[in-house]
C-alpha cells in the first residue's frame, strides 16, 4: 500500500501536467460553453452562409442538405440556426451541421448534436434563407430563474503579423435573422508572432446587463467585422 | 497665495484651450427613447435649396448635426455629406445644408422617387498627421442620465460608405440606470491603440452613435466626443 501511493501521486501529477500542457484552452467542464475552439477565419463574416438551395429530403434518415452561396466554414456538430427559407420551411430550425461527406458550401441539417436525427425537409425550396452559427445561451439561469453570472473569453491564438482584425460577439433572439446586437468588440494588430503570446479578452456579465444570457431563444455567435486582406486569424471563444 | 491662484488660473486656461483645440464633438446630452441611430429612412425630399428631407419617423437630429444621405432615388444630389437644420421643421423633417454654419443650402435636383437613408456621420477621415499617419485619438462616451433600473446597450459605429451597407461596431457599452444618474455620470473611454481597425484617418471614414437596445419606458442622455 505504501509503495502504491507514490505511484498514484506520480500518475496524478502526470495527468495534471498533461492537462496543463494542452495547447487549446481548457474549455471542458460542466459550466463552460464553447462558442468556438481554434477556428480560423480568413474573411469578414460569421460561420454560416446565405442559403442557395436546400435539396429536398424524404425522411429523417436522409436529412435536408442545405446548399450555400459560399463556403460556410462550419464543422461537424456546430450549433446553427436557419431562418428565412421560403418553400422548404422545415429547414427554419435550430439544429446542428454535419459537414463530413459534403462540400465546403453545403451541409446536412440534424436536430441533435450527436448527428443521429436528421431534419426532414419535405417542402420545395423557392428562395431566401440565412444560416448562422448560434450557440444557445437561453438556459443561462440558476435554479430560481435568475440570470447566472458569466464570463466571456475570446482568445486569439494566431494572427498574421502586422495585420489588423476587428472582432465582435453578437447575440440574438431570432436566430440572427434581423435582431443582431453586438455585445462586445475586440480589435488587434498581429505582431510579435502569435499576436502577443496568446492574447485573451474577457467580458463579465455585470459589464453588459443588456446581453441575452438567460433569455428565451437567446443565441450567441462570433463575427469578424473586419480583417485585412491576406490575413488569417485563429481564435477560441467560450463562456464560463 | 496670489501666485498660487494665478498659477491655477493659467493652468486652467491652458487646459481649457487644449480641450477646445482638440475636441471633436459627436453629441451633447442627446436623449434617446428607443433603439436606433440618429437619422432616418427617407420618405420624401423637395427640389429646392435647401432641400427639405422628409423622414418615415422622428430623426432625433439637432441643428448643425453632420449627416450623410445615401440611396435616395430621384433627388440624387442629396446623396452626399451635409448638415441638418431642424429649427423651423417638424420632428420628421429637416433642411439639408452644405456647411456647419447652416448658411449654404444643399441643392435638391430631380423629383424624389424612392429609397434613401440619413445617418449621423462625424467626419473622422482627417484624423491623420502631416505624414498621413493616423493620429492618436481617445473616444469618450458619457452617460448623463438613464432611467433608474433600466438597461441600455450603446455602440459606436464607423463606416466608409456613409452607413449605407458598411457598418462596423468599434465599441460597445452597456449600463443599468440606478442611484439616480446611473452612477454619478458614468463615462467610458476607448483609446486608438485598443482598436487598430477603425476608420480614423481613412478616406470617407465616418462615425456615429447607435443605441442597439434600450428597455421600454426608458430614456438615456448621451454625450460623446473625440479628443
Category by helix and strand content of chain A = mainly beta
Our count of helices of chain B gives 1
Q: Could you say which overall geometry of chain B the principal axes of the C-alpha atoms support? A: globular
The first-to-last residue Cα distance of chain B is 33 Å
Task: Give the strand tally of chain A.
Answer: 15
This entry's quaternary arrangement is heterodimer
Low-confidence stretches of chain B: 10-21
Radius of gyration of chain A: 20 Å
Order of SSEs of chain A: HEEEEEEEEEEEEEEE
Q: Major sheet of chain A, described briefly?
A: 6 strands, antiparallel, barrel
Query: Got a strand count of chain B?
Result: 15
Strand neighbour order, sheet with most strands of chain A: 3-4-7-6-5-8
- Beta fraction of the residues of chain B? 35-45%
Morphology call of chain A? globular
- Most extensive chain interface and residues per partner: A-B, 20 and 19 residues
Tally of separate helices of chain A? 1
Structure characterization notes:
The complex is a heterodimer of chains A (240) and B (227). Chain A is mostly beta strands. Chain A contains one helix and 15 strands. Chain A has one helix at residues 4-20, and strands at residues 33-41, 45-46, 48-55, 65-68, 78-83, 94-98, 106-110, 130-133, 135-136, 151-159, 164-172, 181-189, 199-204, 219-227, 233-239. In chain A, the strands form three sheets. A six-stranded antiparallel barrel of chain A has the order 3-4-7-6-5-8. The two termini of chain A are 40 Å apart. Chain B is mainly beta and 227 residues long. Chain B has one helix spanning 2-22; strands spanning 24-32, 36-37, 39-45, 52-55, 66-70, 81-85, 93-97, 117-120, 122-123, 138-146, 151-159, 168-176, 186-191, 206-214, 220-226. In chain B, strand 6 (81-85) and strand 7 form a beta hairpin. The relative contact order of chain B is 0.21. Residues 10-21 of chain B have low confidence and may be disordered. Chain A binds chain B through residues 164-166, 168, 181-185, 187-189, 207-211, 225-226, 228, and chain B through 151-153, 155, 168-172, 174-176, 194-198, 212-213.
Amino acid at each position: 500500500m505504501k509503495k502504491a501511493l507514490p505511484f498514484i501521486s506520480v500518475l496524478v501529477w502526470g495527468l495534471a501536467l498533461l492537462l496543463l500542457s494542452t495547447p487549446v484552452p481548457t474549455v471542458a467542464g460542466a459550466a463552460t460553453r464553447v462558442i468556438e475552439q481554434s477556428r480560423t477565419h480568413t474573411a469578414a463574416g460569421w460561420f454560416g452562409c446565405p442559403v442557395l438551395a436546400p435539396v429536398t429530403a424524404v425522411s429523417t434518415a436522409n436529412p435536408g442538405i442545405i446548399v450555400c452561396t459560399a463556403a460556410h466554414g462550419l464543422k461537424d456538430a456546430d450549433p446553427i440556426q436557419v431562418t428565412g427559407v421560403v418553400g422548404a420551411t422545415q429547414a427554419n430550425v435550430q439544429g446542428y451541421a454535419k459537414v463530413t461527406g459534403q462540400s465546403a458550401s453545403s451541409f446536412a441539417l440534424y436536430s441533435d448534436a450527436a448527428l443521429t436525427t436528421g431534419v426532414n425537409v419535405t417542402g420545395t425550396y423557392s428562395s431566401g434563407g440565412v444560416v448562422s452559427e448560434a450557440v444557445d445561451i437561453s438556459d443561462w439561469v440558476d435554479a430560481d430563474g435568475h440570470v447566472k453570472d458569466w464570463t466571456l473569453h475570446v482568445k486569439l491564438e494566431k494572427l498574421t503579423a502586422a495585420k489588423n482584425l476587428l472582432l465582435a460577439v453578437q447575440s440574438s433572439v431570432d436566430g440572427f435573422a434581423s435582431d443582431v446586437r453586438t455585445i462586445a468588440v475586440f480589435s488587434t494588430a498581429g505582431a510579435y508572432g502569435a499576436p502577443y503570446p496568446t492574447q485573451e479578452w474577457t467580458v463579465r456579465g455585470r459589464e453588459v446587463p443588456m446581453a441575452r444570457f438567460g433569455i428565451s431563444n437567446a443565441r450567441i455567435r462570433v463575427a469578424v467585422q473586419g480583417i485585412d486582406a491576406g490575413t488569417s486569424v485563429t481564435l477560441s471563444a467560450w463562456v464560463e | 497665495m496670489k501666485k498660487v491662484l494665478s498659477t491655477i488660473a493659467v493652468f486652467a486656461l491652458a487646459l481649457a484651450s487644449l480641450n477646445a483645440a482638440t475636441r471633436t464633438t459627436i453629441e451633447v446630452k442627446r436623449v434617446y427613447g428607443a433603439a436606433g441611430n440618429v437619422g432616418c429612412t427617407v420618405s420624401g425630399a423637395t427640389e429646392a435649396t435647401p432641400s427639405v428631407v422628409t423622414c418615415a419617423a422622428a430623426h432625433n437630429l439637432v441643428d448643425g448635426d453632420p449627416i450623410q444621405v445615401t440611396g435616395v432615388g430621384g433627388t440624387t444630389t442629396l446623396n452626399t455629406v451635409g448638415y441638418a437644420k431642424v429649427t423651423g421643421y417638424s420632428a420628421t423633417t429637416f433642411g439639408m445644408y452644405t456647411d456647419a454654419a447652416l448658411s449654404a443650402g444643399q441643392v435638391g435636383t430631380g423629383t424624389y422617387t424612392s429609397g434613401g437613408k440619413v445617418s449621423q456621420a462625424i467626419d473622422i477621415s482627417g484624423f491623420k498627421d502631416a505624414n498621413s499617419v493616423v493620429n492618436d485619438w481617445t473616444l469618450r462616451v458619457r452617460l448623463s442620465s438613464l432611467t433608474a433600473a433600466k438597461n441600455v446597450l450603446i455602440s459606436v459605429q464607423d463606416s466608409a460608405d456613409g452607413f449605407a451597407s458598411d457598418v462596423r461596431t468599434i465599441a460597445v457599452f452597456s449600463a443599468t440606470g440606478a442611484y439616480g444618474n446611473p452612477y454619478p455620470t458614468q463615462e467610458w473611454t476607448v483609446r486608438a491603440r485598443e482598436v487598430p481597425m477603425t476608420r480614423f484617418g481613412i478616406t470617407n471614414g465616418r462615425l456615429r452613435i447607435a443605441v442597439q437596445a434600450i428597455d421600454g419606458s426608458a430614456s438615456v442622455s448621451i454625450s460623446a466626443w473625440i479628443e
